[in-house]
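Long-time lurker. I teach an intro course on protein structure, and each term I like to show students one example going from raw sequence to a predicted 3D structure in token notation. This year I'd like something fresh instead of my usual example. Would anyone be willing to generate the tokens for the chain below so I can use it in lecture? Attribution to the forum is fine with me.
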Amino acid sequence: MRRVKRLLLAVLLGVASLAVLAAEPRAWQQLSAEQQAMLAPFAGQWPNLPPEQQAQLLSNAERLRDLPPEQRERVIARMEAWLALPAEQRARLRERWQAFRQLPPEEQQRLRRTFHRFRALPPEERERLRAAFEAMSPEERRAFLLGAESQRLADTARRVFAFVPPEQREATWQMLRDLAPEDRERLRRLVQRMPPWQREELRQALLQRAPETRGAYLRERLGEG
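-- Reply from a regular --
Happy to contribute to a lecture. Here you go:
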């Protein structure tokens, strides 16, 4: 069951689906001759593309330059497919990518591995999993996401702290949820060489602090100023 949940979450997040970029609009005439050659299939629609899509294509063009011709054609086909998606669907994919970026590094790696396993499944199995998610009601989807997040936070708490009393689990998970991703990484680094009793002292110290001060406290404990 947990494997199915992770597969569904990988489908939902759309790992490896896109990179979201923000930039100023660029006129086609401002591109170099090499960039224009790489992006020739998009010349006609270039003036109508939002700045972030122009930036994404330019970023991809840099990578396209060193690819063999056949691989370059496949990448261009994927880029064209992305641009052909409805604006609402692209917006949803951006949101999912941002949600993925907020996960701790080890969770990102776990989801990438899960996504690759999902891609290796037979087509009918992949379609079954997609259909299972699509068949959920909005309430069921929210419950699924909350359950996945709670499981992630519980896993993180088990790795970071020696023990979390049942009556303090929700407060501890909320504390982890409130930490910025870089501060969660600092917390993991800080506890690596701590015995269990020091980890518990640290957990209590974090719970007693206001959420907006916890990042500074972790930086201070690590000697980062």
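Some talking points for your students: Confidence is low (pLDDT under 50) at residues 1-22. Residues 138-221 form one domain.
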